[in-house]
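Working notes for the structural subgroup meeting. M.R. asked for a predicted model of this chain before we commit to crystallization trials. I am recording the input and output together here so anyone reviewing the notebook later can reproduce the run.

Input as submitted:
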Amino acid sequence: MSNVLELIDLVTQFSTKKGMVPAVRGVNLSVKRGKTLVILGESGSGKSVTLRSILRITPPGAKILGSILFNEEEILTKSNNEIQALRGNRIAMIFQDSLSAFDPLYKVGKQIEETIISHQKVTRKQAKELVIDLFRKVGIPSPEERVKVYPHEMSGGMRQRAVISMALACKPEVLLADEPTTALDVTIQAQILKLFKQIQTEFGMSIVLVTHDIGVAAEMADDIAVMYAGKIVEYGEAKQILFSPEHPYTKGLIAATPKKGQKGELITIPGQPPLITNMPKGCAFADRCSDAISSCHSENPELKEVKPKQHAACFLVRQKKEMITI
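Returned structure, recorded in token form:
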């Protein structure tokens, strides 16, 4: 199966008082055509920055290094006009906060119409009809009336559906979704995830979904990349990652997920992730890992295959594999 999107040695650096600091540190990922890649990890692990780097939506002074290939074309060398034509058209993004995705001074329908008109040769009337059709597809009731309301007049779930319809307006090949269900209750979250699956089937899109929720990952993912402190620490097919994790951080995330009928205190991962301005010399997870060995504190483990189609960046996992092989 071909890849529609590939990240190769991606590094995203931010300008700080201490100089250029990497928030994303050498990420390698591939997104299969028509499939869903979930990037899983705690807040501050670099997930959202990775998504924004794909469309070059970064703060002034930031640097993006490495390579981002979309249908084998390099994104990082495209001009501003070329990347602008790509955004919202062939690659669309759903941001975490649905309220900030819209200008509060303009009606929702008009804003989505502008997206369509800027990328397609259609009349204003045709654009409006497309928006109404999109609202109907994403399950917004009375779409003819809803296109006339302002963002604050919509509920959170309905506004999120409107954001999704805006992302789908030009039938993109890749949909980037940054925590799209975080602010929604469980019922609406389930509806949104079901909607993503329906949309993917209908449009044949690839989806890159960022979340810290194991349940969302289990529901949506074909492949999972577990991210910690700006690096991918485990990567592979979803079933293998969720049912047979190898990296201690992945195991900790899964163990910390509340189970049905669970009583007593929840399991937590001790400590806090390191600051990007003060990364340790060795493995960034070493200080929180009860199984860390001496090399974990002095060297940075590379992402290596530990099982067929499953990779982990961990000295301990590789050590155990070598012992089994011997």
